[in-house]
Amino acid sequence: MAATTTQSMGSLPSGLAICVTVPDMFYLPELVTGGLVWILVASTHVEPANPLGWVMFVSVFCFFMTLLWVVLFIAGCHKNGSAWVAADFAYHALAALFYLSAGVNLAFITFIMKSGALRIYQIDIAAVVFAFMATLLYFIHAVLSSLRWKHF
Hints:
The chain is mostly helical.
């Protein structure tokens, strides 16, 4: 088992192999949690729109970039080069940083607006939870991608 894990960490998968390799199996949970943040934030109306605009930008940007990344990997557009491995790490590290800042902004706005309608408050709490879950998933993916980069 350890030999196959190390071997899969040293190369980039293509096709449906991205569903079973160690760092790449996080794509689907990243898409789901990011999509849920996007949907939950879009379903509420909060007065300070600027911080929520950042949250919406992060969730939409990361959702579509992750989807594009998955399509590129499934199609085999990468040439198994060091640049793709580095780009994989860089994207996931940037996405983790973006989601961390978006989650903190969303948590702060939710805390400030807690005296509002209960239904909106519950939706905002769910969005905060999913934002931090997305942060964790992207962070784990970035760490595992850095290990793959090291073994490449």
